[in-house]
Amino acid sequence: MDMVAESIEAQAELFSEEEEALSQIVADALPVSYDSTGRFILPPRFQSHADIGGKALFVGKSKRFQIWDPSTYESYANKARERAKGLTLKLRSGPGGGA
Predict the structure, then answer these.
(1) Which of 54, 64, 68, 92 could form a disulfide with 73 if both were Cys (CB 3.0 to 4.6 A apart)?
(2) Are residues 32 and 43 in contact, defined by beta-carbon separation less than 8 angstroms?
(3) Residue 24: exposed, middle, or buried by beta-carbon count in 10 A (0-12, 13-18, 19+)?
(4) pLDDT per residue over 11-35, tens digit each?
């Protein structure tokens, strides 16, 4: 968590809306517990926020992941696919850029 806080402090302009929003993420963070098999237990507050009931879906987002209610994610993903139709992405040739 310290690394996240330090990253926010290094990048976000002090007193900006971005800094305020990112700092709130740190303020809302909670430690997680693990069950006897090593699985982490999503705190009830986060389950409620994400409307997660009996099942959760882990969605990879590059170096991160998100946890969703499966049916909520399906609806979101379908809308995102529709928005993405026709979009293009220019890939960089290597570290540091250049087309």
Answers:
(1) 68
(2) yes
(3) exposed
(4) 656 667 777 787 788 888 888 889 9
